[in-house]
Amino acid sequence: MTSARDELPRRPWRARLHELIFEADTPSGKAFDLVLLAAILLSVAAVCLESVRAIREAYGSTLRVLEWTLTIAFTVEYVLRLIAVKRPWAYARSFFGVVDLLALLPTYLSLFLAGTPSLLVVRALRLLRIFRILKLSHYVGEARMLRAALAASQRKITVFLGVVLTCVLIAGALMYLIEGEEHGFTSIPRSVYWAIVTMTTVGYGDIAPQTVTGQFVASMLMIVGYGVIAVPTGIVSVAMNDAFRRSTNTQACPACGAGNHADDAIHCKYCGEKL
Questions:
Q1: Which of 19, 55, 128, 230 is the most exposed place for a label (fewest CB within 10 A)?
Q2: How far is CA 172 from CA 46, 72, 181, 194, 200, in A?
Q3: Distance between CA 33 and CA 186 in Å, rounded?
């Protein structure tokens, strides 16, 4: 006697694979994301540790074995992503598809660039493995809201930066006239550099006003600097609040693998495939 579970139609294996790899709102998808996150962080940690000479000399072979193990695992993951979508070429040309490929190439290229003259080239290529940290954006849902907030704030921030640029130009020109070359303000561009350092409250101290008038202008610029820091924060915060109210779901397109769809979306806004 068959049970009700046996009578339910089975989903195609490609749909199940897509759900496992691309979806983040299912138990299996969450488990896959957690394992992949751990692998990415371990890979980035290995890259950082390999740059320390003492660790590289003591544990170089262990780090190489770890690197090849992770590279093979990421290669399998990349191939499975291409298999899971209906349009593999669309995913391969996407931002994350290119990032996935860049994260794999350096290790494989090291096989063909062996020898003493190319050691420095191989080392430089292997540094590209740090691109794996970009894959974290696959699995952090809040990254979509941050990207939307920054896009919505782009015009306001552009206008604000224009105002800031005008202020530092005026302040730099004033300090060039007030302090002059004898006090280190040898040109307007160098004075503008001082104004930027002062307004951002960095304060390197390589150039400093010596006159009372110059110190007064510097004090005013420092006070304005606190407001400069606060304004873009407020702009982005408001935009993030709006983006949170218009939050999207975590569903990925079965054809191209793209996400960031509205909760009521029926078709993918990138390729038109039905969700």
A1: 230
A2: 45, 55, 13, 7, 14
A3: 55
Q: Name the residue type at position 25.
A: D
pTM of the model: 0.57
For the chain, state the CA radius of gyration.
27
Distance from C-alpha of 116 to C-alpha of 12, rounded to nearest angstrom: 51
Angstrom distances, CA of residue 257 to CA of 15, 73, 83, 247? 12, 20, 11, 19
Domains of the chain: 4-140 (1.20.120.350), 150-245 (1.10.287.70)
1-24: per-residue pLDDT in tens?
Answer: 444 444 444 568 888 888 888 776
In angstroms, the CA 20 to CA 206 distance is 56
